[in-house]
From TrEMBL:
Residue ranges of domain Pyridoxamine 5'-phosphate oxidase N-terminal in the record: 21-134
Database matches in Pfam families: PNPOx_N
Molecular functions (GO terms): coenzyme F420 binding; oxidoreductase activity, acting on the CH-CH group of donors
Entry keyword set: Oxidoreductase
Organism annotation: Streptomyces zinciresistens K42
UniProt KW Amino-acid biosynthesis keyword: no
Listed GO CC annotations: cytosol
Name of the protein described by the UniProt record: Pyridoxamine 5'-phosphate oxidase N-terminal domain-containing protein
Length: 153
Protein backbone atom coordinates (compact mmCIF):
# COMPACT_ATOMS: atom_id res chain seq x y z
CA UNK A 1 0.00 0.00 0.00
CA UNK A 2 1.33 3.42 -0.94
CA UNK A 3 0.73 6.50 1.17
CA UNK A 4 1.04 9.65 -0.97
CA UNK A 5 3.30 12.39 0.30
CA UNK A 6 5.01 10.30 2.99
CA UNK A 7 8.80 10.46 2.95
CA UNK A 8 10.45 7.72 5.00
CA UNK A 9 12.29 9.20 7.99
CA UNK A 10 15.49 7.84 9.43
CA UNK A 11 15.40 6.47 12.98
CA UNK A 12 17.02 9.61 14.41
CA UNK A 13 14.31 11.77 12.79
CA UNK A 14 11.55 9.53 14.14
CA UNK A 15 13.08 9.75 17.61
CA UNK A 16 13.33 13.55 17.42
CA UNK A 17 9.73 13.87 16.17
CA UNK A 18 8.46 11.45 18.83
CA UNK A 19 10.23 13.30 21.65
CA UNK A 20 8.80 16.59 20.38
CA UNK A 21 5.29 15.15 20.39
CA UNK A 22 5.76 13.73 23.89
CA UNK A 23 6.88 17.14 25.11
CA UNK A 24 4.04 19.11 23.52
CA UNK A 25 0.93 16.94 23.28
CA UNK A 26 -1.76 16.72 25.92
CA UNK A 27 -3.65 13.44 25.48
CA UNK A 28 -2.68 9.80 25.34
CA UNK A 29 -4.80 6.65 25.01
CA UNK A 30 -4.05 4.30 27.90
CA UNK A 31 -4.72 0.59 27.33
CA UNK A 32 -4.81 -1.68 30.36
CA UNK A 33 -6.14 -5.15 31.06
CA UNK A 34 -7.42 -7.01 34.08
CA UNK A 35 -7.38 -10.82 34.35
CA UNK A 36 -11.07 -10.94 35.32
CA UNK A 37 -12.49 -7.85 33.62
CA UNK A 38 -10.56 -7.82 30.34
CA UNK A 39 -9.19 -4.87 28.36
CA UNK A 40 -9.91 -1.23 29.08
CA UNK A 41 -8.90 1.88 27.14
CA UNK A 42 -9.27 5.51 28.17
CA UNK A 43 -7.76 8.86 27.13
CA UNK A 44 -5.84 10.69 29.85
CA UNK A 45 -3.81 13.88 30.02
CA UNK A 46 -0.10 13.22 30.26
CA UNK A 47 3.13 14.96 31.11
CA UNK A 48 6.47 13.90 29.64
CA UNK A 49 9.33 14.61 32.07
CA UNK A 50 12.10 13.60 29.66
CA UNK A 51 12.21 10.01 30.90
CA UNK A 52 8.64 8.96 31.63
CA UNK A 53 5.00 9.78 31.00
CA UNK A 54 2.94 10.85 34.02
CA UNK A 55 -0.85 10.54 34.06
CA UNK A 56 -3.45 10.79 36.80
CA UNK A 57 -6.74 8.96 37.32
CA UNK A 58 -9.23 8.39 40.08
CA UNK A 59 -7.93 5.85 42.59
CA UNK A 60 -11.11 3.77 42.16
CA UNK A 61 -11.17 3.91 38.33
CA UNK A 62 -10.97 0.84 36.10
CA UNK A 63 -7.55 2.03 34.95
CA UNK A 64 -6.27 2.19 38.54
CA UNK A 65 -7.79 -1.21 39.34
CA UNK A 66 -6.22 -2.75 36.24
CA UNK A 67 -2.68 -1.46 36.77
CA UNK A 68 -2.70 -2.72 40.35
CA UNK A 69 -3.27 -6.24 38.97
CA UNK A 70 -1.30 -5.94 35.72
CA UNK A 71 1.14 -3.02 35.46
CA UNK A 72 1.99 -3.55 31.77
CA UNK A 73 0.33 -0.93 29.57
CA UNK A 74 0.31 0.36 26.04
CA UNK A 75 -0.04 4.08 25.37
CA UNK A 76 -0.92 5.66 22.02
CA UNK A 77 -0.79 9.27 20.91
CA UNK A 78 -4.06 10.15 19.16
CA UNK A 79 -3.04 10.50 15.50
CA UNK A 80 -3.45 7.62 13.06
CA UNK A 81 -1.35 9.42 10.41
CA UNK A 82 1.59 9.88 12.80
CA UNK A 83 1.51 6.80 15.04
CA UNK A 84 3.40 6.66 18.33
CA UNK A 85 2.90 3.58 20.53
CA UNK A 86 4.61 3.26 23.90
CA UNK A 87 4.82 0.08 25.96
CA UNK A 88 5.97 0.00 29.56
CA UNK A 89 5.05 -0.78 33.12
CA UNK A 90 3.20 1.53 35.47
CA UNK A 91 4.57 2.65 38.80
CA UNK A 92 1.63 3.95 40.81
CA UNK A 93 1.74 6.79 43.31
CA UNK A 94 -1.23 7.70 45.51
CA UNK A 95 -1.69 11.47 45.40
CA UNK A 96 -0.26 11.87 48.92
CA UNK A 97 2.96 10.05 47.91
CA UNK A 98 3.59 11.37 44.40
CA UNK A 99 6.96 13.13 43.96
CA UNK A 100 6.26 16.85 44.32
CA UNK A 101 8.21 17.84 41.21
CA UNK A 102 6.12 15.52 39.00
CA UNK A 103 2.80 16.59 40.54
CA UNK A 104 3.76 20.28 40.37
CA UNK A 105 4.74 19.96 36.69
CA UNK A 106 1.49 18.10 35.94
CA UNK A 107 -0.54 20.83 37.66
CA UNK A 108 1.38 23.58 35.83
CA UNK A 109 0.80 21.97 32.43
CA UNK A 110 -2.95 21.45 32.88
CA UNK A 111 -3.99 24.11 35.39
CA UNK A 112 -5.48 21.34 37.52
CA UNK A 113 -3.97 19.78 40.62
CA UNK A 114 -5.53 16.44 41.62
CA UNK A 115 -3.92 16.78 45.07
CA UNK A 116 -6.31 19.66 45.78
CA UNK A 117 -9.42 17.67 44.83
CA UNK A 118 -11.71 15.73 47.11
CA UNK A 119 -11.39 12.00 46.66
CA UNK A 120 -8.32 9.92 46.05
CA UNK A 121 -6.26 10.04 42.87
CA UNK A 122 -3.53 7.79 41.55
CA UNK A 123 -0.58 9.11 39.56
CA UNK A 124 0.74 6.70 36.95
CA UNK A 125 4.35 6.83 35.78
CA UNK A 126 5.35 4.89 32.67
CA UNK A 127 8.96 4.75 31.61
CA UNK A 128 8.96 3.49 28.01
CA UNK A 129 10.42 0.06 27.33
CA UNK A 130 9.39 -0.10 23.66
CA UNK A 131 8.43 2.76 21.36
CA UNK A 132 7.12 2.36 17.83
CA UNK A 133 6.63 5.32 15.49
CA UNK A 134 5.53 5.47 11.87
CA UNK A 135 3.77 7.61 9.31
CA UNK A 136 2.01 5.40 6.82
CA UNK A 137 3.12 2.24 5.05
CA UNK A 138 6.54 3.58 3.93
CA UNK A 139 7.63 3.69 7.58
CA UNK A 140 6.35 0.33 8.79
CA UNK A 141 9.81 -1.16 8.40
CA UNK A 142 12.02 0.26 11.15
CA UNK A 143 9.10 1.46 13.27
CA UNK A 144 10.71 0.26 16.53
CA UNK A 145 12.70 3.25 17.75
CA UNK A 146 13.19 2.06 21.34
CA UNK A 147 13.71 -1.48 22.54
CA UNK A 148 14.36 -2.62 26.13
CA UNK A 149 14.38 1.03 27.26
CA UNK A 150 17.16 2.06 24.86
CA UNK A 151 16.60 4.46 21.99
CA UNK A 152 17.83 3.16 18.64
CA UNK A 153 20.18 5.25 16.57
Amino acid sequence: MQTPGIVRRRTAERRRDTLERLATERDVWVSTAHPDHGPHQVPLWFLWDGRALWMCTGAASATARNVREEPRVQLALPDTLDVVLVQGEVRSFPDEHVPADAADAFAAKFGWDPRAEEGAFLYLRVEPKTVRAWRGAPELRGRVIMRDGTWRE
